[in-house]
């Protein structure tokens, strides 16, 4: 009995340590610059816009993303242009999320690609509110040109700023 209790406490402490480490790395935006070297495939350059299906007047999307997750404006996420779905590993309902490195205005961030959409001409990615605010804190721009998006290999990335 004592052994089982000790094992349970030990397991809970280990899970807490992992959670705190991940939370701290996302909070501080701590990523090795080696992430740039992990980009798989060719980068795509185009315009980025923002979306939030819960705001009045938005015609695109809905509360559920292509991966089946609900849209969340507080995470580091984005929707890729439908024609780029295959390049970014499929982005399918119930599948593990895909990740990309997004670079613009001298900043870099890892985003979870959990949605696709028929974006307006010239646009390659729709960033959720948190991600767009990283590049454009006031959301005044609406569209950011010359954004570079590179698919990342693997599914172990922690979304957030690359520092």
Automatic annotation (TrEMBL):
Domain of life: Bacteria
The name this protein goes by in its record: RlpA-like protein double-psi beta-barrel domain-containing protein
Domain spans labelled RlpA-like protein double-psi beta-barrel: 46-138
Pfam family, one: DPBB_1
